[in-house]
Amino acid sequence: MARLAAxxxxxxxxxALGTALESSYVEAQVTxxxxxxxxxxxxxxxxxxxxxxxxxxxxxxxxxxxxxLQTIRTELEEKMRQLDAQKEFLKPEVYNQQYADxxxxxxxxxxxxxxxxxxxxxxxxxxxxxxxxxVNEVVQQIAQEEGFSFIFAKETLAYCAPKYDLTQKVIDxxxx
Length: 176
What we know:
The chain is mainly alpha-helical. It has helices at 2-32, 41-47, 49-86, 92-146, 167-174, and strands spanning 36-39, 150-153. The chain is rod-shaped. The N and C termini lie far apart (70 Å).
């Protein structure tokens, strides 16, 4: 009987101890809360080698287009100056015809300019899509590997303690 009583006391103490441990474990989880982090997307865009390379390629393309458009505009403006200088020596109908032709060329230039700039803007959008997907993939990998519940963009936060900054980890992974 004494053995049975001792065994029952052990069970009660064990159950109480188990409940206390479980309670402190749950309390620790509640106290710890979700694991949070943030990334600075501007810094990622500035420091990621892949993104810098893409940006440089697009800037070269933009510079080439701007130079091409500037050459066309300069030629048209020069032709307009020459026509204005010859105005007194040309018959009115000849001048008016040449002026109308140049005016049409200016309109065509404006349409070409709009088209080229629109195409360039589309190239930027197309280049940004895979970059954004890759950044999101890296952020998700870090979140899963390190147990983050939330990773925010710094731009959406009023304040961020530097210890929660994951930007360098993202940049390092993108540069691998």
